[in-house]
Amino acid sequence: MALTEPIAIEGDEREQIYAYVETHGAVDRDRAREALFPEDPPGDPQYTRAFRHNVAILKRDGYLEEDDDGTLRIAIDVDDEREEFSTEDVDVTIRPARQEDLSGIVGAMRRLVEGMTYIEAETVADELDHENVLLRHNEFESRMFFVATVDDEVVGWAHLHVPNLEKLSHTAELTVGVLEEYRGMGIGNELLDRALEWVRSQGHEKVYQSVPSTNEAAIEFFEGRGWVVEAVREDHYKLEDEYIDEVMMAIEL
Length: 253
Hints:
9-stranded mixed sheet, 12 strands, 3-stranded antiparallel sheet, alpha+beta, globular
């Protein structure tokens, strides 16, 4: 399912099932059935068949996917291919993120926020902590993540937020970051390329982001890759007693 597609599920029970999976990120199918329909007699073949049928239709229509162990997830149209490369004796993997990466992504974001260099990432981290869900696609918003991992640990991320508003349907908002110990290895560039490749595949035309003016390295990084400064909001951030400008950047695809 493309994140640009509206949710158009037929049937109240199917809507309930999708909403439950979407708000939990990943859930065991039996636990989902028990949580959604607790009045159904356990093991009753009639109810088990009905639930199984509704899940099968949601999978057929591209709304859900199921792991071999029975874990249900929302289905997102993305190339699941892993990109692997080695740099400075470090083996790096770039891939789409899954619910299980949530804690690693939040941890990486918090590390960068500590340095007061990426304020927007703090907002995203707070949302993830509050919702405990990584990928979203509902009537209000959609979001997608890619991660860079070393030895299966998250060392960087790219996050895309897509507002489900017709007037903004051609845009997406980006945050991207790499732990300081892994900068200068090309990881940020690979994450950015993968994220923009996915955005193009979804039919979006413009990507934007905001960074504090004090993060000169990030501004230089993006300008070197074709991004432009569209506006500057003076004194937009206040960190302790210091006022900092917000630099609003964008790229046309």
